[in-house]
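User: Design a sequence. Structure:
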């Protein structure tokens, strides 16, 4: 099964707004390996405003999955989904800004979208936001904030965050580490 097929299945399984009939039509297209039909249906859902379809269309454009690779189109569709609050799209849009893919590099915009996604529990965004604070990319340098986000992401199983957390703790004063853990505890209580 191709990555695009897997992405399409995930799209329709994850999308609560897709009707049962539309899901059946899309699945029939997958069963027949009729990617053009499936892609057309996904684009239709995306244009209608379905955030999951918008995200999956962005992924297709970013990686050239059965469409010509086009970072600008990827950014366009990530933004559509991100503006609707889809955390994974917000995180992905942050990455596009952070890398300057399909858009001018803008660390402040990257950090903005990481923050949006991180607040919703997106582990990749939490790790990336921690890195932004640590590297002073788009936000003021703040080791306590970096440590806080890496604590949160590490606790949920993000291995990169765990490595980053171990590294930063060697550089911080004990009271700074304690403050980061206090912030993490406060964040978890507020969820």
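Assistant: Done.
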């Amino acid at each position: 099964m191709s990555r695009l097929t897997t992405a399409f299945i995930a799209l329709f399984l994850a999308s609560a707004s897709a009707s049962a009939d539309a899901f059946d039509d899309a699945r029939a297209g997958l069963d027949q390996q009729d990617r053009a039909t499936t892609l057309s249906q996904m684009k239709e859902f995306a244009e209608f405003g379905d955030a999951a379809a918008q995200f999956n269309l962005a992924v297709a454009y970013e990686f050239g999955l059965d469409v010509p690779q086009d970072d600008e189109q990827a950014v366009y569709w990530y933004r559509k989904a991100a503006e609707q609050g889809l955390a994974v799209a917000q995180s992905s849009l942050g990455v596009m800004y952070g890398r300057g893919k399909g858009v001018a590099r803008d660390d402040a915009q990257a950090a903005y979208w990481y923050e949006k996604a991180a607040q919703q529990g997106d582990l990749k965004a939490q790790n990336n936001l921690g890195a932004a604070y640590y590297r002073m990319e788009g936000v003021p340098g703040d080791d306590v904030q970096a440590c806080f986000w890496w604590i949160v992401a590490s606790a949920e199983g993000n291995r990169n965050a765990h490595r980053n957390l171990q590294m930063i703790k060697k550089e911080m004063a004990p009271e700074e580490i304690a403050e980061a853990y206090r912030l993490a505890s406060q964040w978890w209580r507020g969820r």
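Residues 17 and 139 are 36 Å apart (CA to CA). The first helix runs from residue 3 to 14.
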